[in-house]
Amino acid sequence: MFDVIVIGVGGHGSSSIYHLAKNGLNVLGIEQFEQIHNNGSSHGLSRIISLTTRVHPTYVPLIRRSFELWRELEVEYNKQILYMTGCIYIGSEDSPIFKDCVEIAIEHDLEHEIMDASEIMNKFPGFNLPSHFYGIFTKEGGFITPEESIKAHTKLASNYGATINYNEEVLSWEDKESHIEVISDKNIYKCKKLVITAGAWNTEMFNIPNSPLSVQRQVVGWFPSEDKNIFKKENFPVWILDGGTNEGYGFPEYGFDGMKFGIFNDTDENVDPNTYSKDINSEDIKLLTDFTKYFAKTNEGENFSTCLFTNTPDGHWILDKHPDSENCIIVSCCSGHGFKFAPIIGEIVTELCQKDSSSYDTELFKISRFKN
Q1: What is the per-residue pLDDT across 301-347, written as a single tens digit (0 to 9) for each?
Q2: Could you tell me which of 269, 286, 276 has the C-alpha nearest to residue 306?
Q3: Distance between CA atoms of 175 and 181, rounded to whole angstroms?
Q4: 232 in the Ramachandran plot: left (φ > 0), alpha (ψ -120 to 50) or beta?
Q5: Within a 10 A sphere around the Cβ of 3, how many other Cβ atoms?
Q6: What is the dihedral of CA 333, 47, 149, 320, to 10 degrees?
Q7: What share of the chain is helix, strand, coil (3-state, %, to 5)?
Q8: Buried b (16+ CB within 10 A) or exposed e, 313-346
Q9: Residue 282 and residue 291: Cα distance in Å, rounded?
Q10: How confident is the model at residue 372 (pLDDT cuts 50, 70, 90)?
Q11: What is the pTM of this model?
């Protein structure tokens, strides 16, 4: 019997397996795909990380700890995962993205700089902004490489004795009081605790009636510039920009030529992760291309990719015990702002498995808030 089984070995699952194994637990991770794949939410070369957050003050101490854990992981793995470029949130003076970030930065005494459009474009010539835009910039920001993060967490977890099975699909699980039984397409397993970190497949794995989760298809693209320097990571920050109609997010050049960016929740269409289309259509390209008006000297996009956002109605995570099983931890720390927190999520999951409670404030993430 395993101490813990983790279903789903993406960003949050790999971190959970690492922290559980590092704390001496006998852990099995089960992943339905290869270690690195493009079917879910943990691919695409980069994810934003910033000490300044516009989501909720609860996340501030969690992101502080995440920065510490990412740096510790880099040392143990002996390879860079975190790239510090600075982060800027841009919008009109009345834009929630700008106002919320300023309020949280002031409330938590976070180092920041407020700039008008001309100051932003002077500091970062890659932007082309309307005169009424403002930005809040913090040096404590940059991006995480998701694929390398998963490789690091899984490799080190294996070093600590964890077992990880790839290309194995979990079909069902059942709490039998004395243990939890997990049935896959290859075997039947027993464990004391079960952790579900299945991302876009959480709805079927949680098996909770009237699940609050929805899955949306996202498209990102890489847009080169005729100026080979303006989008380099040494010269350009990660960014989130509220254009009024759409809110975009993006990264300096890494992996492919040019700046990578996407539009938050670019469609309102909910999709099935097993059948959704990864094909890029003309509407996808037009939506991203139109947003390049906020940037200088961009050429046509050369690479495009899809991924999945798993959303809750209020945009906050689910990180809690299963409502029908004290021994099952359900993790959906998504809604487009979860990957940067992967290390702290693994740490919290380990606390919940070992002590049934966490030293961090997780009240915001209770699934009971969605009860009718």
Answers
A1: 989 999 999 999 999 999 999 999 999 999 999 888 999 999 999 99
A2: 276
A3: 6
A4: beta
A5: 17
A6: -10
A7: 30, 30, 40
A8: eeebbbbbbbbebebbbbbbbbbbbbbbbbbbbb
A9: 14
A10: low
A11: 0.96
* The length of the chain, given as a count of residues: 372
Write out the DSSP string of 244-308.
SS-EEEEE-BBSBSSEEEEETT----B--TTT------HHHHHHHHHHGGGBSSB----EEEEEE
* Model pLDDT for residues 108-149, shown as the tens digit of each residue: 898 999 999 999 999 999 999 999 999 999 999 999 999 999
Domain ranges of the chain: 2-44+146-210+315-370, 87-138+214-311
Query: How does pLDDT run across 198-223, given as a tens digit for each residue?
Result: 999 999 999 999 999 999 999 999 99
What is the architecture, at CATH level 2, of domain 87-138+214-311?
A: 2-Layer Sandwich (3.30)
Residue 225 carries which DSSP code? B
Q: Is the model's pLDDT at 350 over the cut of 70?
A: yes
233 phi, psi to nearest 5 deg: -65, -20
Side-chain half-sphere CA neighbours of 43 within 13 A: 15
CATH class (in words) of the domain with range 2-44+146-210+315-370 = alpha beta
- d(C-alpha 210, C-alpha 125), whole Å: 48
Q: What is the band of 53 on the pLDDT scale with cuts at 50, 70, 90?
A: confident
Question: Does the pLDDT at position 72 exceed 80?
Answer: yes
Which tens digit of pLDDT belongs to each residue from 255-278?
999 999 999 876 677 899 999 999
Pairing mode, if any, of strands 238-242 and 87-92? parallel
**Strands 303-311 and 133-138, bridge-based pairing:** unpaired
DSSP state of 45: S
Domains 2-44+146-210+315-370 and 87-138+214-311 share a fold: no
Please state, as a whole number, how many other Cβ atoms lie within 10 Å of the Cβ of residue 155.
16
